[in-house]
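ok trying this again, last paste got cut off
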Amino acid sequence: MDICSIILSAGKGNRMSSDIPKPLHTISGKSMLQWVIDTNKAAKIEKSIIVIPENNDLIKGITRDLKTVIQPVALGTGDAVKKATQQLREFTGIILVCFADTPFITPKTLLKIIKAFNNDTKLVVSGFKKTEKNNYGKIIFSGKNNPVEIIEQKDAELKNINSQFCNGGIMAIHSSVINDLDKIEKNTITNEYYLTELVKILSLQNKEIAFVEINEKEILGINNQIDLSIAEKIAQHSLRKQAMLNGVKLIDPETVFLNFDTKISKNVTIHPNVVFGKNVKISSAVEIKSFSHIEDCEIHENCVIGPFARIRGDSVLGKESKIGNFVEIKKSNLDKNVKVNHLSYIGDSEIGTSTNIGAGTITCNYDGHNKNKTIIGKNSFIGSNSTIIAPIKIGDKVTLGAGSVFNQDVPNNSLSIGRARQIIKNKQKN
């Protein structure tokens, strides 16, 4: 049976108090919407329709390769699903409804919901058990396991209805009952159409409705910045745990922040207070010291990084390189055994094997219009407090004198000094 998911992503998200659309807020470096998209792909659900708000370029940007439907006015989940199903009039199969602000749903759970269908099932409802008082909608059953209605908590209290199962939100609809979405009536208080009303509509028609119990942790909804911080904590705990199970030594795990795509090999040691951004790949036996920030780079075996180092911008560090305290590497390739130990900025550069960069060295790679390249050969020594102005090529086995400014190429096996002559004058006596 064919499966198509509808991902609802058109809510205003006013409670986030942010100019960023709620679905694009990130957890461990990945937007909530992308979390849900990736989960659907992992569950082998190839067809997806994402419901987005009108005139929202940010949402459109992340979904440009996927099919989207615009919900011009936020009129509730029922209206959003109805808008999406207009693209599915010729579709036969199961329509899975997911939410962009519920990022932790797992592929296993989505497949569990789908497998709840038999030949007669028209709707599958998900829920979780929670006995203490809460604000979740309640699932009302007829018999042991047959949902007949989902009602709001306040209505359940007024009607003295006690149900231990709360609405999980995730729902699967058989394509044969798409037209029943038209029967959902607008709520007179909120002026919205609620998808949950479909349960009662189908129940009154004696259509078969199945129920699947899911883990409450998976349907954590993100409504505000507090919820987002809780989600980040959950994601980080999972990423750290997996890293340590894979052989990474985190000296103080709670102070290390990983990105969803961080790749770290075994036998890597990470000291406290290290932050990883996107696109980081670290080979084995690397040591990363405290207060370092690392993103968009590849670090090869036996490197030592930090403390207080920053590496970014598609940089590559060769085996046994050392990046010391208060050093920034940007968009540069360092070969094997390169040492940049102190207080330096290396940008848009290529540095050869076993070259030593002295303290306070900077590569000046911007002329106001272009990013220019600095090329330094192997086995060279760059004296402290050197300023290297690109474009420039410095050869192999070169020594550059400390405190110099260089703006011309330097050939192999040379000593080059580019500083003003020191002058000493006697002070005039009064």
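PB: full thing came through this time. The mean pLDDT is 93.
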